[in-house]
Amino acid sequence: MQTCSLCNTSTSDDAVQCPNCQADLREHSLTAVALKALRANPRVRAIRISVAADACSYCAGQPGTYPKDQAPRLPHPGCSHPQGCRCFYEPVLEQIFP
Questions:
Q1: Beta-ladder partners of 50
Q2: Could you read off the pLDDT of 26-72 as tens digits, one per residue?
Q3: Containing structural domain, residue 69
Q4: 83 SS3 class
Q5: Is residue 87 included in any domain, yes or no?
Q6: SS3 per residue for 14-68
Q7: Average predicted confidence (pLDDT) for the chain
């Protein structure tokens, strides 16, 4: 399931537009906003994709660490989990403390 960052409406993984506010979910889903924030953060040197323990076979094969500009968009288009893609981003930090 995707969640719109503007109106907090949940919709299916394959939706491109929020059914409530008509926002483009490729830019305004919570995961799209998170990816944009991680890419903009200078302390983040890479982005890790983590998967749920009961992930579908497609998502189970997708975990890994990616350069910031190469991290794939979530939800994964090949996900077949009944509850939708439950993969998420984790930052790999350059430094933890200033």
A1: 88
A2: 999 999 999 999 999 999 999 999 999 999 999 999 889 999 999 99
A3: 2-93
A4: coil
A5: yes
A6: CCCECCCCCCEHHHHEHHHHHHHHHHHCCCEEEEEEECCCCCCHHHHCCCEEEEH
A7: 93
Using alpha carbons, select from 81, 89, 46 the residue that is nearest to residue 60: 81
pLDDT at 74: 93
On the question of a cis peptide bond just before residue 91, with omega within 30 degrees of 0, the verdict is no
- Other beta carbons within 10 angstroms of residue 81's beta carbon come to 21
If phi over 0 gives left and psi between -120 and 50 gives alpha, with beta otherwise, what is residue 84?
A: left
Strand 88-93 with 44-50, pairing: antiparallel
What's the CA gap between 71 and 65, in Å, rounded? 8
Total of domains in the chain: 1
Find where tokens 């949940």 sit.
10
Compute the residue count for the chain: 98
